[in-house]
Amino acid sequence: MDYDVIIVGGGVVGCAIARELSRYRLNLLLLDKEHDVARGASGRNSGVVHSGVQVPPGSLKAKLNIAGSKQFPKLCRELGVPWRRVGKLIVAQHKSELAKLTQMLGTGKKSGIADLKLLDKPQLKQLEPHINGIAALYSQGEAIFSPYMLNIALAENAKQNGVHIKLNTRVVGIKRLENKFKLATDNGSYTSRYVVNSAGVWADKLAQMAGITGYRIYPCRGEYRVLDKACAKMINSMVYPVPVAGYGGLGIHLTPTIDGNILIGPSAEYVKGREDYRTTGPVLNKLYREALQLLPAIDRRDFIAAYAGIRSKLCRPGSSRFTDFMICEEPKLKGFINLVGIESPGLSAAPAIAKHVGKLIAKGLKLAPNPDFNPRRKVETRLDNLSGELVCRCEQVTRREVLAAINNPLGASSLSAIKYRCRAGMGRCQGGYCLPRIVDMLRETSNEEITFHGPGSHMFIGATKELLKCS
Ligand SMILES: Cc1cc2nc3c(=O)[nH]c(=O)nc-3n(C[C@H](O)[C@H](O)[C@H](O)COP(=O)(O)OP(=O)(O)OC[C@H]3O[C@@H](n4cnc5c(N)ncnc54)[C@H](O)[C@@H]3O)c2cc1C
Q: What is the distance between the alpha carbons of residues 362 and 238, in angstroms, rounded to a whole number?
């Protein structure tokens, strides 16, 4: 199996690169160790298209963030991914924070972000009557979207345009041959002229497989709580606190989601496990306490779920040093492109990262346009699906939508793959009503084992009556 480019990692970055490269006549392969795309940081975040106001001007991060965020309206239109400008407020609660707001206004203007303004208390109250604060920096252009839908849509469109996508395929070794690379995986081996390392929190380990030892990623977990849609009217914009140096993130914020919930989080806690997605009692309580300071109307009874994502940090615990995205073709290993430390605003920057990587590859490969490239993803609109039996009552998901999710173009099969595609199970009852119905539908369509999120995550160990007979 010989390819021009192999992309390792089916997160938003890898899939954006795959789609970008599918504009050209190239033989492309994308590998991911998981049973579906969007299983890493790209499916576990705030879903915000940042404008770049929180990033130091002049950095690669700022450049790619600003360029990437400008591409979102067109990209989301082409891929059929919902996206909405709601604006972001960075809210000062104490006089001591006012200077920081003015400083951020200056930084944002320096980066060329035009639609920024300072709001006094009455102006803030007019926009957000329920929010506590004495002033705010308002960044009007910032938007929300569904991060996992974008990731899935990029992968589907890349596949539609000829990219081979192999899931459940973990890269375990990389060897330099004379003029190409050989990638050993737990599912066969593949060769290619270029390798793109977009393995997220594992990117330093993947670089090590190729003999590059200079990177180290420190995983930093961010936990979230999800508020019921009944709370949607409590805020109109994203609401952030004034950032604190050394916190490890942007501070615990309130983010309306494109689907009508509100997210509280993320926390920032360095952890050992790169995939330790646990949520923890003390942190969830802290999220509640801190969110109450911004939005006193929140009630514990409105929490319907919790989740966590892991940031790929290049700075050690306790350090407040700014670290930039590391994106380069390794000088000592031509053809090997590393993307390391792609933490926030990696989603917002992804479309621009993809173009940047395309330019690096164009230095070594002739990029002839793919005449069949179609930027539009084939997607059924929600309205077409609205009639028929309701399988998920909370999220109003019909049988037809669940079936479309089961028969998805990537062939990803698990309950989470279905949930991420049609939202069945994401509502107030968290699958209490729809889960048995979806399981029945899966049984009608396939004899394969039904898993929660891919191999090893068993849901059933046998039929109840047989188990009783055994005991
Ligand atoms: C808590 C949190 C909140 C965030 N909020 C925002 C936000 O609001 N806006 C924003 O712009 N950014 C945000 N970010 C940052 C953003 O989510 C990331 O920058 C982005 O998702 C990184 O994408 P990625 O494709 O590089 O990594 P990932 O999505 O982690 O993908 C890496 C992929 O590589 C695969 N992989 C790893 N090793 C191997 C291997 N050996 N073989 C095969 N496959 C492998 C993994 O399975 C995974 O699918 C947030 C991040 C976090 C953690």
A: 38
Please give the distance, rounded to the nearest whole angstrom, from the Cα atom of residue 223 to the centre of ligand 1: 15
Q: In this predicted model, what pLDDT tens digit does every residue of 344-361 receive, in sequence order?
A: 999 999 999 999 999 999
Q: Tokens 């004899």 belong to which residue?
A: 447
Nearest CA to ligand 1 atom 25: 11
CATH tag, 1-81+144-216+315-375 = 3.50.50.60
What is the pLDDT averaged over residues 415-435?
95
Residue 223 beta carbon below 6 angstroms from any ligand 1 atom? no
Residue 37 main-chain phi, psi, to 5 deg: -80, 175
Under 8 Å between Cβ of 223 and 238: no
54 lines ligand 1 (CB under 6 A): no
Question: Distance from the CA of 41 to the center of ligand 1, in angstroms?
Answer: 3
Closest by CA position to 55, among listed 250, 318, 260: 250
Q: Does residue 214 register a pLDDT over 90?
A: yes
What is the 8-class DSSP label of residue 386?
A: -
Strand-pairing partners, residue 176, are 181
Mean pLDDT of the chain, nearest integer: 94
**Contact partners, residue 396, CB within 8 Å, separation at least 6:** 390
Q: Which of 202, 263, 325, 420 to mutate to test the pocket of ligand 1 (most atoms within 8 A of CB)?
A: 202
SS3 labels along 168-197: CCCEEEEEECCCCEEEEEECEEEEEEEEEE
Q: Which atom of ligand 1 is nearest to the CA of 42?
A: 21
Q: Where are the domains of the chain?
A: 1-81+144-216+315-375, 88-140+218-313, 382-461
- 34: Cβ below 6 Å to ligand 1? yes
88-140+218-313 domain in CATH 1.10.630.10?
no
Amino acid sitting at position 9: G
Which pLDDT tens digit goes with each residue over 272-294?
999 999 999 999 999 999 999 99
Any catalytic annotation for residue 50? yes
User: Over pLDDT 90: what percentage of the chain?
Assistant: 87
Taking the centre of ligand 1 as the mean of its atom positions, its distance from the CA of residue 311, in whole angstroms, is 8
Indicate if the pLDDT at residue 445 is higher than 90: no
Predicted pLDDT of residue 464? 76
Same-fold call for 1-81+144-216+315-375 versus 88-140+218-313:
no
pLDDT band, residue 174 (cuts 50/70/90): very high
Q: What are residue 398's DSSP bridge partners? A: 390
